[in-house]
Amino acid sequence: MLSQIKDYKLPSRTALIVWDVQEALVASIFNREDFLRKASQLVDVARTRGISVFYTKITPLPEKFESKARQLMWRGRRFEPGDIAKEVYPREGEVVLNKNTASIFVGTNFELMARNASLSSLVFTGIATEMGVESSARHALNLGFLPVIAKEAVSSSDREAHHRSLTNMGKLMPILSNEEILSAWG
Fold first, then answer.
1. Where are the alpha helices (DSSP H) in the chain?
2. In Å, how far are 64, 119, 157, 164, 182 from 130, measured between CA atoms?
3. Tally of helices (H runs) and strands (E runs) in the chain
4. What is the tens place of the pLDDT at every residue in 61-101?
5. For residue 123, which of 8, 25, 3 has the smallest C-alpha distance?
6. Under 8 Å between Cβ of 129 and 161
7. DSSP conformation class of 22
8. The pTM is what?
9. Hey, what domains does the chain have and what are their CATH numbers?
């Protein structure tokens, strides 16, 4: 499938998305060490290849302004996810998007930045596979981007939901190992 999509191999047309790799979330996932190793590997190689790296951070709205749906989801709890994990911490020039939803495209300027930079392929890493990663990847697909899921560099606190999400997304978009992604990046 990827051999037919030449833009995927062009660093100038690709972005790496590091989705919500924040300390509180990293602490709760089932494969912490493997996940951090694989996510770090992709970030390091993206940097050396000149691939744009974007980070997202869950940034809750003040309670008064939070949607009723999200208030119900959190059932009165306040979620404070903390800062981005040191293993993948952003460097100067990398973009950190504070966001309030499970889509990188809602409430941020990501789509504008991606289109301005002529990006066409988005490689997703991060937490949680079945929530923000899948929501953003599906949204990307609907907007005409090629979402690629780095299957070894996504995770969740719910192993079953993680695997179910990978299976579902695999029907719509490439789900690749780090080795396959790095090979495409040259």
1. 23-26, 32-49, 68-74, 110-116, 134-142, 159-169, 178-184
2. 27, 24, 10, 8, 24
3. 7, 6
4. 777 777 777 666 656 556 667 899 999 999 998 999 999 88
5. 8
6. yes
7. B
8. 0.90
9. 2-184 (3.40.50.850)
